[in-house]
Amino acid sequence: MKVSFFSTQPYDIKFFNECNEKFNFDLEYFEPNLDEHTVNIIEEGTDAICVFVNDKLNEGVIKKLKKRGIKYIALRNAGFNNVDLEAAKKYEIKVCRVPAYSPQAVAEHTLAMLLTLNRKTHKAYNRVREQNFSLNGLLGTNIYTKTVGVIGTGNIGRVFCKTIKALGTNVIAYDLYPNEELKKEGFQYVTLEELLKQSDIISLHCPLTPETHHLINKQTISLMKNGVYLINTSRGGLINTLDIIDGLKSKKIGALGIDVYEQEDKLFFRDLSETIIKDDKIQLLLSFPNVLVTAHQAFFTEEALTQIALVTLDNLRQLSNSNSIDNKAAELV
Ligand code: NAD
């Protein structure tokens, strides 16, 4: 099995090479994102490609993959909004993913963003290094007793519900398919409208689909409480960025934590410190004191990277052996 990796970072190489000792595949690593141009660097004799969140697998790219003899597309992540699954079906390329590698990693980062924004530890860190020990401007609130609305209670949302509940919050949830286990544990499901109206803190954990695209927009923001905290560690496209900027300007949004951003494919996972960034929306967001941006790092723990490498290579092993995968959630096409 020869596998070409796109959007490769040094940590991908480390974790995949370590894990590959068990599989002995021929792994080749490319740094660029996959698109209609970079698809041409795939060498003859390659069986599979391994891609990440910002690789674009539209019909044009998939058609070219087919021409190059690619049989399998392995996503080394859970979300698959960047893959045209219909096109993969049409060109008979199998697509697999890592449905759940460490929901705790993402849930813990969500909590970290919330606590940082609330207690302003990011500002305090810089302030004391300048020997400024004043507390003015660092005032937070107790999270205890606040109402936290969780949108999407799948693998990550469920862990986040339990994690945030442990702080003594009142957790309410919204999902198209409420989780019976959470209900039995006393978590309350409400409608989306009720959640938006009642929550002091809202955390997004649903996938990006045509239905959830710009779920957070002018109209849904207008239903929220004044000063609401919003955290998005799911996908950037869930939020209409211009509308959230208006929400921040009007102080409707009291704090915003985003680990994902609609136009992140041009920014994240790169060092752009010497570059003039032309995306005015992210520049504006970065200028707000109550906005915290991290560059899609919620998944980034040792445990998650180990599990991602193991499951990805095992998915490919199973596909090449039997054209199917035991864990049906991992098999997309
Ligand atoms: P999951 O599939 O286990 O759960 C998603 C939940 O969302 C499901 O319960 C589903 O019923 C619900 N849902 C779907 N459509 C909905 C809608 N229209 N309204 C309300 N709920 C809806 O997925 P997961 O593993 O919990 O991951 C959630 C998302 O987190 C992924 O789709 C991915 O985009 C994102 N993610 C981000 C990172 C990161 O590093 N920032 C890492 C992993 C996953």
Automatic annotation (TrEMBL):
<comment type="similarity">
    <text>Belongs to the D-isomer specific 2-hydroxyacid dehydrogenase family.</text>
</comment>
<dbReference type="GO" id="GO:0051287">
    <property type="term" value="F:NAD binding"/>
</dbReference>
<dbReference type="Pfam" id="PF02826">
    <property type="entry name" value="2-Hacid_dh_C"/>
</dbReference>
<keyword id="KW-0560">Oxidoreductase</keyword>
<feature type="domain" description="D-isomer specific 2-hydroxyacid dehydrogenase NAD-binding">
    <location>
        <begin position="111"/>
        <end position="298"/>
    </location>
</feature>
<dbReference type="GO" id="GO:0008720">
    <property type="term" value="F:D-lactate dehydrogenase (NAD+) activity"/>
</dbReference>
<dbReference type="InterPro" id="IPR036291">
    <property type="entry name" value="NAD(P)-bd_dom_sf"/>
</dbReference>
<dbReference type="InterPro" id="IPR006140">
    <property type="entry name" value="D-isomer_DH_NAD-bd"/>
</dbReference>
<dbReference type="Pfam" id="PF00389">
    <property type="entry name" value="2-Hacid_dh"/>
</dbReference>
<dbReference type="InterPro" id="IPR029753">
    <property type="entry name" value="D-isomer_DH_CS"/>
</dbReference>
<dbReference type="InterPro" id="IPR058205">
    <property type="entry name" value="D-LDH-like"/>
</dbReference>
<keyword id="KW-0520">NAD</keyword>
<dbReference type="InterPro" id="IPR006139">
    <property type="entry name" value="D-isomer_2_OHA_DH_cat_dom"/>
</dbReference>
<feature type="domain" description="D-isomer specific 2-hydroxyacid dehydrogenase catalytic">
    <location>
        <begin position="5"/>
        <end position="327"/>
    </location>
</feature>
<dbReference type="InterPro" id="IPR029752">
    <property type="entry name" value="D-isomer_DH_CS1"/>
</dbReference>
<protein>
    <submittedName>
        <fullName>D-lactate dehydrogenase</fullName>
    </submittedName>
</protein>
